[in-house]
Each structure stands twice: as C-alpha cells, then as structure tokens.
Design goal:
single chain; 12-stranded mixed beta sheet; 444 residues; globular; Pept_cys_AS; alpha+beta; thiol protease; 14 strands; aminopeptidase; 17 helices
C-alpha cells in the first residue's frame, strides 16, 4: 500500500539538519559553488601526474566538436597512429566525415529493415518504441565502423574534410530522424495493407535515394577516386594517384579487421564470463559485420590492453566518461569527487548494480596510448581523447586504474594477444543475443 510523506517525517528531517553544526556552512558552499566543485579532492591531481612507464607518441589529438562521433574518431585514431608510424606523418588524420556519411546512410537502411521486421507489432511494443525513440544517431561501436570500412574503405581527411553538419550534428540528426520516422509510418502502412514485396522494395528504394540526397547536401558527396598528396615529417613530397577508398585502406592501413575483436567487462549475472554476446537490432550495415563481445574478468581485460600497448599499438576503449571525471584537468579518478563525505550519504554501488539499474553504461570511446606499470601492475593510464587540445594535457587525459575497474566496459584488441582458450571461444562460440536495450548495446 502506498504511503505519503507525513508532516512528522518532515519535522524530524528538519530537526536533524538543524542539529548538524556543519549544515549551514555546507549549504552555503554547495549552493554557491555546486556539488562537484565543493566535493573535489584536488589531492587526486598529484596521483594523476601524466607520466607513464609505457607511453606511445601519437601526435596531436583530433576534435569531434559538437558531434557524438567519439567511437569513430577513436577507431580512426588507432589506424592513423599505425599509418603515421609507417609513412612518417605525425599530424595526419583520416576523414571522419567520410565514414560518418556512409554510417548514416547504412543506419537508415538498417532502421528501415527493423521497421519492416517489427511491422506486425503495435507501436506500443517495447521493440517498436525502442526503434522510434532514436531511429539513428551519431554513436556507434567498433564493429560497426569495421562494417563501414569493409564495405566503403576510408580516405584522408584532406579528401573529404569536415562540414558544418558533421562538426555540429544536431540539425542533421533531427532532420534525418524526422524523415526516418515519417518513412516508418509509410512502411508500416504498406505492410498493414498487405502491399507486395515489390511495392515495399520500391518505396524503400525511393526513401534511400532521398536519404542519400539529404546526406550529400549536409556532408558532401563521398569521393570514389582521388589522389593522395602530402609531405612527410621530413618535408619530402609524395603523390599517389588514382586511389579508391578501399585501395587506400589496403595500402596505407592494411589491417585485417577480423583480427580486432571486442572485449567487454560486464559483471552482471546475465552475462557469465568467458562467453560471447551480441545485441538484437544493434548495427548499421545489413548483412555486414556483427557486433560481437567477449566478456572477461577485469584482470584479463586489463592484461590484454597492456599486452597491446607493450607491442606498441594503441587501444580503442569504451567507458562512462561522465563518472568521477574532471574535463578541464583531464582526470578520471574515483577519488576526485568525494560526495559521500560532503553529504554524509553512502552513494556506493557495484559495477554490476550500476549496469542493472541504469546508473552507468558506455557513453564515450577514446584511445589508450600509455600505462604506468609499478611492480608490474597498472596504476594509471594515458588516454587520447577527441575533444581538442584545450582540455587535459593538450587533449590527453589521465585515468586511474581504479577508475578503469569501475567505469570501463570495452576494449578492442588484436586476437593474437588472447590466450588460446579465450581465442577459441571468441572465434567459435555462437553469441548469446541480448535485448536491444541491454547496456552492452549502448553507443559511444
């Protein structure tokens, strides 16, 4: 039976607060300075000095600006690090706008296919409501970028630079989602009226043509052939003519993307360790690469990241960047804010509880470019962000090892670093399918 708040209860709470000699001082501090500033423990800065025993030189950071393409920036950054080392190009960038165009185009088709697949369900069903809540967005996952590159390749940023709408994506996203929801109405009506497969295919084809036009006006039309002209760090001139996006990837990055696999740490009861998982309705390219996660202990999670860094290769990772994170100073540390002491309230929950109860999920992707090992154990990690050079140490952040334990959920590593038992599971096990709204389906 429901119970209301009584006057007696309120009186007790007021009396308790009045009896606290520190209450008024804290009220003035918090109300004027805010919760974060008042609870900040700047001693954390001493522990988070940006010095690391393993420190990869990866050049200047990129800037995603007012867009949600961190996953894309982070993935392309790991590839440009490799390319820069091979071709002596320290400040080179790959085109995030090129992959952004094809990602949004493919997401539109992926959305249409999911609309058709759920057309027999009422709009009140959870799956249909989930689809309509966000038909597409800027975010994504590593496997989704691999699907784009495998189909369309990549190009240098000089070939397809940023536009207003790629760097400030809210207008494009709202306009594209308006169209996709309208198209969902049309597709569902066609199915309800028992239209033929040919009529549905024709309607969808027209819709995709309109999406292509919308994206071309907003982002520019992608190139199909180009010349790559550049000077290396020694000022030597180079030109490579007649490249395609796929031949450029093959020549200048030349990764077998199937070698790079998603490793997660999700300590919830529904996801036993050492098994693989995928998420229903998560993806972008229909019949493209499937999102597939191997769930491991945090000990194995960190060991794999360290192995790849020791081999000289940066590591894509996903985390909940808003938790215990100071943006301007570039510090992610569980000790940076002490809200428990400020309010005399126990705010603690386990990592599993935060996932199960909606307190945390992956919200941002960045790149690990270093780690500080003391007696063989990690104490802090160097992080390349994609928020420009005005935050952190010229755009680089420091993450405590304790913060990684609590708020990191995904790394991507070359499967050569997996022990044989985990490698076999990753390669052969059919993944368990999770619900579309599972936190491991969150887009960075």
């Amino acid at each position: 039976m429901s119970k209301e708040i009584t006057a007696d209860q309120t009186a007790r709470y007021q009396q308790a607060l009045a009896a606290d000699p520190t209450a008024k001082v804290l009220e003035r501090a918090v109300s004027h300075q805010g919760i974060l500033a008042t609870s900040a423990d700047y001693a954390s800065e001493t522990d988070m000095t940006p010095v690391f025993s393993i420190d990869l030189d990866t050049g200047k950071v990129a800037n995603q600006k007012q867009s949600g393409r961190c996953w894309m920036f982070a993935a392309l950054n790991t590839m440009r690090h490799h390319l820069a080392d091979l071709f002596n190009l320290s400040d080179f960038e790959l085109s995030q706008n090129y992959t952004n165009f094809w990602d949004k185009f493919e997401k539109a088709n992926y959305f249409y296919e999911n609309v058709l697949a759920t057309a027999d369900q009422p709009t009140s069903s959870r799956k249909v409501a989930f689809l309509m809540a966000t038909p597409q967005q800027d975010g994504g996952q590593w496997d989704m970028l691999c699907a784009i590159i495998e189909k369309y390749g990549i190009v240098p940023k000089s070939v397809m630079p940023e536009t207003y709408n790629s760097s400030k994506s809210s207008e494009l996203n709202s306009t594209l989602n308006l169209k996709l929801r309208k198209d969902a109405v049309t597709l569902r009506k066609l199915v309800a009226n028992k239209a033929s497969d040919d009529d549905i295919a024709a309607a969808k084809d027209k819709m995709l043509g309109e999406v292509y036009r919308l994206l071309s006006f907003s982002l520019g039309e992608p190139v199909s052939e180009f010349d790559f002209e550049y000077r290396d760090d020694d000022k030597n001139y180079h030109i490579d003519k007649g490249l395609t996006p796929k031949s450029f990837f093959d020549k200048y990055v030349n990764w077998d993307l199937s070698d790079y696999v998603s490793i997660i740490n999700a300590p919830t009861d529904d996801k036993p360790y050492n098994h693989t998982y995928t998420v229903e309705m998560l993806g972008n390219v229909v019949k493209g690469r499937q999102v597939k996660h191997l769930n491991v202990t945090m000990k194995d999670f960190k060991a794999l990241a360290i192995k790849q860094l020791q081999a000289g290769q940066s590591v894509w990772f996903g985390c909940d960047v808003g938790q215990s994170s100071e943006r301007q100073k570039g510090i992610m540390d569980t000790k940076f804010y002490d809200k428990d002491a400020l309010f005399n309230i126990d705010f603690s929950t386990t990592k599993a509880e935060r996932l199960d109860y909606g307190e945390s999920m992956m919200t941002h992707a960045m790149v690990l470019t270093g780690v500080d090992l003391v007696d063989g154990k990690p104490t802090k990690w160097k992080v390349e962000n994609s928020w420009g050079e005005k935050v952190g140490t010229k755009g680089y952040f420091v993450m405590s090892d304790a913060w990684m334990d609590e708020y990191c959920y995904q790394v991507v590593v070359n499967k050569q670093f997996l022990p044989d038992d985990l490698k076999k599971i990753q390669e052969t096990e059919e993944p368990t399918v999770l619900a579309p709204w599972d936190p491991m389906g969150a887009l960075a």
